[in-house]
């Protein structure tokens, strides 16, 4: 589908495409890791360049909104403590709110002469699992702790666990994300504490 989009963009003579890409993890790690949705986007990124479409690729980080769904803090079995289960240990992980991406794209489209041909990793900050937990705890007034789980949780066999474990293993390699450039492109993009403050009711 991505390659068809690139071919269509070429036929239509589009002067600037902003593509939501990602790293080809399998290629970058020499086959050590495979993250299918990353790898597929990486192949399409290369294809846009190959067919000569003027393209800016943006590579997104972990979405803050994931903390409201699959990574929502869970109440511990005993006491009033909540647990944040993010298999990153002490390695900082980039993040950003989905709704702050749109203004970034608008800014890129307004300045093709500056951004065509570039690959831009987006992020409004990087925190460790414990730091993410601390922010939520401070904002919500609840005791929150990091679970300290590892990507080995995939062995539990839950649906999608293997793919998600591979994603976090790749995040642990610290892929290139540029906080300063992200904030230049969207000065109103929120840090994690700002985003949590805006979304207290959802927690």
UniProtKB/TrEMBL annotation:
Signal peptide: none annotated. The gene is Nmral1. It holds the Pfam family NmrA. Residues 1-185 form the NmrA-like domain. Belongs to the NmrA-type oxidoreductase family. InterPro entries: NAD(P)-bd_dom_sf, NmrA-like, NmrA-like_oxidored. This is NmrA-like family domain-containing protein 1. Keywords: NADP. It comes from Stercorarius parasiticus. GO terms for cellular component: nucleus.
């Amino acid at each position: 589908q991505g390659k068809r989009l690139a071919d269509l963009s070429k036929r239509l003579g589009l002067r600037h495409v902003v593509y939501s890409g990602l790293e080809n993890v399998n290629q970058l790690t020499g086959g050590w890791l495979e993250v299918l949705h990353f790898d597929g986007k990486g192949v399409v990124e290369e294809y846009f360049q190959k067919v000569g479409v003027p393209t800016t690729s943006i590579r997104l980080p972990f979405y803050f909104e994931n903390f409201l769904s699959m990574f929502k803090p869970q109440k511990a079995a005993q006491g009033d403590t909540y647990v944040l289960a993010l298999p990153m240990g002490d390695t900082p992980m980039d993040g950003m709110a989905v709704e702050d991406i749109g203004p970034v794209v608008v800014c890129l489209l307004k300045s093709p002469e500056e951004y065509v041909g570039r690959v831009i990793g987006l992020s409004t900050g990087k925190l460790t699992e414990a730091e993410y937990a601390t922010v939520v705890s401070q904002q919500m007034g609840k005791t929150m702790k990091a679970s300290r789980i590892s990507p080995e949780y995939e062995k539990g066999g839950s649906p999608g666990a293997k793919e998600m474990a591979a994603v976090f293993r790749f995040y642990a390699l610290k892929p290139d994300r540029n906080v300063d450039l992200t904030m230049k492109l969207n000065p109103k993009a929120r840090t994690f504490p700002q985003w949590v403050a805006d979304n207290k009711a959802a927690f």
